[in-house]
Structures are given as C-alpha cells and as structure tokens.
C-alpha cells in the first residue's frame, strides 16, 4: 500500500464556460466535482496504475462530505471494474481522511472553451486547531503501523497547522523506516528538507525560491545539500532532472507537447512512488515520472492521464546523465 | 405573511480576490456563502423591513442542505434580535422550500478588489422531474391556503420545469384572490404575462426582449396590453417607470449613485410587495422600490440594502406623472 497525505484537501470544481470575460455574467455549461488536492490526485493516478493507495489529510463540513462521497463512489466503480477485468487493472483508493470541524476548501477551475485556458480560484483551507493536529499525528502513526511501501506528503498547509508539520511527519516516517517523498513549496519545503526526506519533487520556481539559484542542476544539488536524499525537479516542458547520491540524470519526451499541464506534477510524483514501491533503478523511476507527466498534459480531462499515451510515451523517454553546466 | 417563490434557488458564493486575471491562479482571500436566487433575496429585504416572509422553491443535495442551514441560522439570529429590540425590527424568513433529488446550483461572484468589479459564474439548476413539479404544485396550494398578503414569483426556471410554470402559478394565485408579482425574463415572462399577474417587474432589457421596443413607456404599455395589470420597469440608474390602470409614473433618486447594482432589482420587488401588503397608493410603492434599490446600490455588501441610506433616500425620491414621449 502507498500512503498519500493531503493536509489541505479540496473539493475541485471545474466550470466550463463559452468564454470568460471579467466583470460579465456567465452561464456555466457544465459542472464537474471531484476530490482534489495534490495527494488525492497522486492517489488517483496510482490507483489507475494498479497500486493500492490510502489517502489521509484533513476533511470537514458539507464540502468534505461531498469529497468523501465521491471517493467512495470511485472506489465502488473501481471494485466493479477490477472484478470484470478478473485481476489487474485499477486498484481502489482507501479513505483514511481525518475529520475536523472546519470546512474543506473548494477550488474552482474555470475552463474557457474559446481559448482553452483555465482560470483557477482557490479557497483558503479550514482552520485546524492544535487538538486536531495532535489527533491527526496519532492517526498518522497508526497508518504507518500498517506498513505502507512509501508515503507522499503533498501540497500546502491549511491555516493553523504548524509550518514545520512536514518536517514532523518526515521524522515519524523515517523512524518507521518507510521511504517518504515531499512535494510542497516555500517555508514548509525549507523546513521539510532539514528533516531529510528520501525524495523532494519541487518545480523550477519552488526550487529556485528555496535555493536562490535558477539553474536547475545547481539548484537541485543545493536542495540535496539542505537534506534531501534525492531531488526530482520538474522542469515543465523540459522534462525532469534527478539528483541522487549515485549521480544526476535528466529525462524528457522526444517532442514538446501541447496540452493542459494541470496535474502533471502530481502524475510525476505517482511515477516516482510507483517506481520506488517496485524498487526500480532511479533512471526507470524517472522515465515513468516523465511519461506519466506527458500523458497527463495530453489528456483531454485536466489532471487525468491518458493510459495509451503513457504506454506509448514510456519507451520513448530519453534519460541522460546530467553534467554540471 | 408575504410568500416568495424561487424555483431556481442557489447557494451564492462570493469570492474576494486581489485582482482577477483570466488564465491565472488566484488565492481567494475571503469566501462568503448565503442563500441566493431572486425570491430569497427579496425575502431577506422584506425581513429586514419587518415583514414576515415565507420562501418556497426547489432545494436539494449538499448545497441545498447548506442553503437551508444558512436560512435557519439567519432566522435564529433574527429571533434573538427581535427579542432584544422588544418588538419591531427584523422579521424572520420561514423555510417552506420543496425538497428534490437534484442538487441546488451554486453561483460564484468573484469580486476584484482592484477594480471593484464582480464576475459572475452561475451553475445550471437541478433537473426537476414531472413528479417533483406536481408535488411542488400541491405544496404551493397549501401555502396559498395560509392566506399570504401577496406572492412574488422570481427568477429563472430550472431544467425540467414546464416553460408555462409561472403562468400556472399565477392562475392558482389569482384563483385564491391573492395579489401576485412576476419577476422573470424571456419565454417564462411572455407566458406569465398572458396569465394576467397583478404586477410584473422587468428591467429595460427584459421588457425590450418581450415587446420589441426599447422606449420604456411604450414597452411598459405593450407589456400591460399583453396581460399584466401593472408594469414596474426598472431602468437602472434612471430609476423606475410604473404603468397601472390609473396612470403612469416615473421615479428616481435626485442624484446618480455609484456602487454595486447586484440585488437592486430584488430590493425593488421587496419595495413593491411591502407597499402592496400595506395597501399604499401606487406612487408610494414606487418611491419605496426606488429608495430600496438605491440603498442596495450604495450598500458595501452586494445584494443587501443599507438601512440608514434607505431612510434618508425615501423622502428624496421624486415621483412624476409619466407622459407618452
């Protein structure tokens, strides 16, 4: 089982409108609701790849109730599909979210059908009390006792959660001898690095913010010196860069892809985790992450990956040793 | 008691963002949720004026649950306030909404804190089945048996409701000898007019669409010929125009007002209904509608009216006999 943590889980709404014009009134043509937040997205991709996944984080209010109902509906559908496929195929996502008094935030993605662009509106998360944080920590330890193959800590922190929250969770996880990946930004990333996670997966902007250098290889090595065992930096259309104790690699698909990059980073995390769970060599994990990212950019549905594209992309990913510039 | 009907009730969300930029990602600074849809807005204004109001229409799903909880919280707060004020003051709104299987729509108003503009995103309403519509009609007849002083039928129709729904409700209401006001647009307005409502309150665009003429007095008279006993047309910053069987009047505040016009039309409906319930002469009803509209435009909170502004505006509204142009 792979465990993903989404402290600031969300109910993601997608609105399709003919054309978004500021100050105008719009009839929304189509509304989609789905569980959101980075760790929940990672879990969905892992599930589609056939990995059993458990999700935790905070959930509350009517929006939280909808989120849990959607997770349960997905799990029921996946169970039916797995039975039909007689083994293999999609694995379901187990809900181990921690109930709080506050209301799960919504995010609204407004898709402009004329330009294809998405405008994103993200509500602030619920306020977490110190008692709720303590309760979560106890529940997290119980989840670690189930012996997950790997843990991913994903996304921003809701108000009230200590800024060193990820550092605390990384220490707990490492004490339990379970590999842990961190995907966050800003101060929670800075503090998290110091707790020595197995992998961090920043993007270009996040790593530059932390290390003060925009040159990817130099920045990745700086992040490694700050404590991460491995740094997998996503470079947008330029693929990914990986720095480990064994060396550095870069990987990309042969051609630049047009599409929607929403969720590409979460798919990369799923690729890295799945490779970790199967104990693949680093270059293979990286290839998987890059192919999944590309298949997500190319998917017609934002944040989902296109399985045939993934199968087709995976052998074409070029992994190269990276040299200092 | 005044009854307001909102067939396409909504959960209104207001998002404040520093500046809305299409295709960008925005952190929402502040989220407000409140019961929405024209008839619910009218009821809130009537309540603030001290009129007992009952609301009906369709409600369902988790969003409907939140809407009802907000109505109940407002009612509890109003009851406390009324007790403190020892009579007079705010009257509470009674929830007589009709439960359906579909989900109450959300509307999202994105307030740009730099420009002050609001961008509106309106979800489609829930699909209403023929059985639900029949059930609603029976519940509506029961509400008419309670003998409301007046009824307001407000807003758009959700999918599945017959386009002649308002015409049906108007006939039922007139059979019960209860005055009925209609505030809608397009085909539901056209059909509603033929059922001879006591008052219609179109805006300039709605009345032009129905009558084919943009000149307000001519258009109002045309709408009257199509069946309405009285036509109260809101002309935006130019105030209102009223055509009844006794004559025609126009009314406006002495100076043009800057502010947010959201809900000004709903406040005008509340003004007309309150004047009707108190059996005021037509020019006084019109003055009340115009002053409430103006106090809504001037209110810092979208869709609410500023009570001191209302008290101050009311004596300053100029009502004049309107002449054919």
TrEMBL record, chains A, B:
Gene3D superfamilies: 3.40.1190.20. Belongs to the carbohydrate kinase PfkB family. Pfam families: PfkB (PF00294). Residues 12-73, 101-304 form the Carbohydrate kinase PfkB domain. This is 1-phosphofructokinase family hexose kinase. Keywords: ATP-binding, Kinase, Nucleotide-binding, Transferase. PROSITE patterns: PFKB_KINASES_1, PFKB_KINASES_2. The keyword Cell division does not apply. It comes from Streptomyces spirodelae.
